[in-house]
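For practice. Any example?
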Amino acid sequence: MTDESYTLPAASIEPAAMVMALRYKIVAGIAFVIAALFLWAEIAHRLKDGFDHGVAPAVFACVVFIGMPASIGLWFFGKAKRVTNAGRIASTDASFTWHLVGGQIAATDGNGVPRPDLSFAITAGVRRTLPSIPRATAQR
């Protein structure tokens, strides 16, 4: 993949952002379900056996098996929120210029200053749906 930059129309940013936000929300949802299942299992185990082995193993189990999936879920939910915000800004604020650089959509404001808070990664499938990207052609 090259690091060439292609200027994208603002109208194509919101659909790409919505696709990526949905992907992030799905991953966050899966992580939250895993954390909830571990929480349910931990509560069931504690109700059955109590704290026979002490409190430290229970705290460790909660941090590892509940805290980590919940943290991953929060991280992906934050990414989804940030990407949704970028799509919303692309559809409402015409002062931004949007570029495709490798596997990232990057924003620059009216002065040409990059805005990393509005940049986000895209998949190859989303990249193929974007307009104004030169298609590969066979050369003989």
Notes: The mean pLDDT is 87. The beta strands are 5-8, 97-101, 104-108, 114-121.
